[in-house]
Amino acid sequence: MIEKVILECPFCHSKSIEAIHIPKEIKERKGTWGGRAGIRTIPEKYEVQSGCSKCGKSQKEIEKALKEGIGDTEKEKRILERLRQQGIIKDEITTKF
């Protein structure tokens, strides 16, 4: 059953994002002419319908953040500094965690 829900903004953590929730679906596949029969599972998903009215982030920015996650840059800096102090890292690292 598809329903409209309110999600929490990944940036400002306020409940202000409208989305449509599509629940998980299980479909049975029939085998034809030697093809494989089985069960196919379609995972649940959220379709973002609006941007955040509190922090002003756009719909695309919110979709990307919900899909990929938001990195904690302060935590990354602390980890890199600790590795430098231990002598594990000598040069600058260009990849992210």
Tags for this model:
97 residues; 24% helix; two-stranded antiparallel sheet; 3-stranded antiparallel β-sheet; alpha+beta; 5 strands
Structure description:
- The chain is α+β, with helices and mostly antiparallel strands and 97 residues long.
- The chain has one domain (3-70).
- The chain has two helices and five strands, in the order βββββαα.
- It has helices spanning 59-68, 73-85; strands spanning 3-8, 15-22, 25-29, 38-42, 45-48.
- Strands 1-2-5 form a three-stranded antiparallel sheet, with helices on one face. A two-stranded antiparallel ribbon has the order 3-4.
- It is flat, with a radius of gyration of 21 Å.
How much helix is in the residues? 10-25%
Overall pLDDT score: 83
Rg for CA atoms: 21 Å
- What is the topology, as strand order, of the major beta sheet? 1-2-5
Q: What percent strand?
A: 25-35%
Give start-end ranges of low-pLDDT stretches: none
3D shape: flat
Task: Give the number of DSSP strands.
Answer: 5
SSE series: EEEEEHH
Work out the helix count. Answer: 2
Q: Give the biggest beta sheet.
A: 3 strands, antiparallel
Give the class from helix and strand content and strand pairing: alpha+beta
Number of domains: 1
What's the short story on this structure?
This protein has 97 residues and is of the alpha+beta class. Helices cover 24% and strands 29% of the residues. The chain is built from 2 helices and 5 strands, in the order βββββαα.
